[in-house]
Amino acid sequence: MDAKDILGLPKNSFPAAQEKKPRPPKDSQRKPDGVSREVYALTGGMAPLMPSIEVSHLKKRPNSEKEKITWQWLSFTSSARTDNLQLYHWVRVVNGVPPTGDYSFAKYNKSVDILRYTDEEYEKHLIDPMWTKEETDQLFDLCERFDLRFIVIADRFPSSRSVEELKSRYYSVNRALLIARAPSPSDVSGHPLVKEPYNMVHEIERKRALSAVLSQTKQQERRDAEILAEAKRIMESRMASKSAEDAEMPVNPTGNETEKATAPAESVSPSTNIHPSSSTAAPATATTESASTPASLRMLRVYLRTHVLDQMVQAASSTAGLRTIKRVDQTLQDLGVHVKPKVPTKAVCAEHLELRKEILTLLNLQKQLQNKEAEASANRDSSYAEAPSTPKRSYRADVDRPFVPDSVGFGGERAAKRDHKRKAPGRFIDAPPSPPQSKRPRKLKASD
Amino acid sequence: MPPTSPKKHGGEQQPDTNSGQKSQRSKAARVSDDAADKKTRRLKDAEISFPIVYGTISFWLGKKASEFNSHKWTVYVRSATNEDLSVIIKRAVFQLHPSFNNPTRVVESAPFELSESGWGEFEIAITLFFHNDVCDKQLDLYHQLKLYPEDDNGPQSTKKPVVVETYDEIVFSEPTEAFFLRVQNHPAAFVPRLPAGLNLPLPGPIEHVNEKKRGDTKDHPLSQWFMNFSEADELLKLAAARQQVQAHIVKLRRQLSMIDGLPQQSKTASARSNRFYDEGRTRG
């Protein structure tokens, strides 16, 4: 082929290297009729496996059909219409025979079957103090006319009634009729209307609640989400403590849970004076720790200290996402503490757990602080261009890793720097005549 | 003999009463008539823990190493203070890789260890069964056998083994009274706090148990390789870390409260400067 010529490869290379079918060399020289060689080469030099268009058909295809088709402008009627209006349209006529049958779209004309009552039935079953017979009749007429589209019906209804009232009347009438007409109550008890009657009050409430949810402000949404997360966390911690319990539970498990909440507060004070010997540290923490042993652990009878620690770590970080857990681990490493203690004695495990909780608190506070800063700066940014943004940016950079070991002095210096920078915009605010363009020389105005 | 021993369950062995390592509170001995009562009654709010160390030590066989037998190793469970663990452990079952003959090895007495030789690293499952008065449930431990050292730069030496040990503590919560009394003086046990109201027997005179097989690992042939686990280090580091974190928290709280004081200021300020900015634009 041409490509091979260009590449300088021999034309008839080893046959196995080519297509699997043994291609006779005449293919490359022969060109099929009616198609130029290059075009044919586009197919890969082979005829297509399945011809898309039969070439013979392209040439000879007069209308050698047996049938004779014409199109005629004919009139038609539709069974969907109540008047006998005759309209016209194009019709495909085969051999002079126009098509029979109804208008093809008439089958889509569906309507709802509305029960109608006789006056007798009305007197017997359907009297309602809130509704006159006239209104009820009107309602039913509209229902039939508008196929139970209650919004439209409510709009058309002569006296003003709410959608729920109309629905309530309609469904209660239907229900009464069903029950009255049924040969026996059991026949009709399976009917959904009989089983669950329309409850107007409930519907009004539901719609109100729905619109309230839809129109909640962002703040409300956030608050709701927080409360739900809190509730979930409480539920989960309750489940965690109940999961290992059998039918015979110790006397007051609920007392344990409240104790667990207060115990961490107590255990901070004993741990502030740590002595190297375990025996003196142990009694101090043990008094609070054994009181706070979750009920589930007691049922285990025998367990490894590390199992307990893992469970407690998981329970403590159940609300935190995976990223937060990773950040806690990272912080532990930065502080020089093993993520899993090497010597997990009771005291060590307790300390470790407390440390983790404190780190979580720290991370939460940092996030809050970031959010607050972002909000505050959003206010400031709208007023003037750049001044506050630079100090903010540098602040954010060092918030994520507070315990970088080779630090910029931990603590005091950094706080001082931040305060200093925050004061700068404050000073700006106090001096309105100097516009903020000073940092962007392009924007210097003549008025300066 | 310790004063309460006649009341104990007959089948248990006498505990070592070497109690020099722990500070014990001693109260007057309580005379109890009903030994069965002690076996079933559980001490609420009490727990006993046994610090243990489990792991493997493996030696390269050097010249004698073949393709399928390159290392000899020992897996064991020992007390962290090298005391005798048979006070609580009835037997230990080591579950080895299925390629070993009889991969389930049972060790009925202290020291609870198993030596083997092989070429591959795998996870060993150790199941501890306790005496009847201790606990009905078994405890599972898992350990990854390590034959090859971390840094595979230098050639392996037959003298220096690869040691991997894990420290942990077996905690028995709400022990039965009988069990508690039996072991609370044992050096392998650690009793953090004695339950209120329990009168303890006085610790008896020291017994010499030279006639029996040594169950402790103090003079174990491999004891030179045992690692030391110091709680003090870890506690110090944790305390230091907590202090840092707490200080940081205090700082952040201060900052947060400062920011909460700011918003009014910035809002009015921004209103003012907004007006100014707009005026400036129209003027310009």
Question: Short summary of the structure?
Answer:
Chain B: Pfam families: YEATS (PF03366). Chain A has 448 residues and is mainly α. Chain A has helices at 2-7, 26-29, 37-42, 55-59, 119-125, 133-146, 150-156, 163-181, 185-188, 192-195, 200-214, 218-243, 253-272, 278-291, 295-300, 305-316, 322-334, 346-383, 389-399, 412-430, and strands at residues 69-76, 87-94, 302-304.
Note down, in words, how this protein is organized.
The complex is a heterodimer of chains A (448) and B (284). Chain A has helices spanning 2-7, 26-29, 37-42, 55-59, 119-125, 133-146, 150-156, 163-181, 185-188, 192-195, 200-214, 218-243, 253-272, 278-291, 295-300, 305-316, 322-334, 346-383, 389-399, 412-430; strands spanning 69-76, 87-94, 302-304. With 448 residues, chain A is mainly alpha-helical. A two-stranded antiparallel sheet of chain A has the order 1-2. Residues 15-28, 251-292, 386-399, 405-441 and 443-448 of chain A have low confidence and may be disordered. Chain B is flat and about 75 Å long. In chain B, a hairpin with an 8-residue loop joins strand 6 and strand 7. The chains are: A mainly alpha (448), B alpha+beta (284). Chains A and B meet through helix 14, helix 15, strand 3, helix 16 and helix 18 of A and strand 1, strand 8, helix 3 and helix 4 of B. Strand 3 (302-304) of chain A pairs antiparallel with strand 8 of chain B.
